[in-house]
Amino acid sequence: MTASVSAATVVSVNLDRGHHFSKNVVPEVVLVEGLGIEGDAHAGATVQHLSRKRWHKDEPNLRQVHLIHRELFDELAEEGYSVEAGNLGENVTTEGIDLLGLPRGTVLHLGDEAAVEITGLRNPCIQIDRFQQGLLKAVVRTDDDGSVERRTGVMSVVVAGGTVRAGDSVRVELPAEPHEPLRTV
Description:
The protein has a single domain, classed as Beta Barrel (M1 Pyruvate Kinase, Domain 3), CATH 2.40.33.20. It is of the alpha+beta class and about 180 residues long. Strands 1-14-8-9-12-6-7-2-3 form a nine-stranded mixed beta sheet. A three-stranded antiparallel beta sheet has the order 5-4-13, with no helix packed on it. Strands 10-11 form a two-stranded antiparallel ribbon. It holds the Pfam family MOSC. GO terms for molecular function: catalytic activity; molybdenum ion binding; pyridoxal phosphate binding. This is MOSC domain-containing protein.
């Protein structure tokens, strides 16, 4: 089943060859099935994030491609923060789609060829506060009942390779029901 999302687009693509917090905006990225983004430090079939690699090096890499919705930047600006595409380490910045509201297993078709399958929520860390003091608390909220809302995007794996550029469309393909909510990966 394909969900109807009007005018969902890629607004930026970003990569970094090193393990830095922010990624550089680039004209295009090449997604490689089962690996991630060609030339990005987090590409690989097994865990590549330095904080996890030491203990989980042989586990599958469920964090090959990180996506954030651009609308988060507007929300953060209202709270006094200045965040732009790539600043929070995302590979793909989208617009017009509620990434956090999608179920696990959703496939996002990026442009004409590439597709990623959402594996879960990004679990933000203290590096966000090193980028801008207080930002971690702004993107991870705890309600009075103790439930935690993480707003720093979703993680995914590449299920179809291809080139992705700013301006490409995003098409949503929901998994079969029952839908499984997103959890951190």
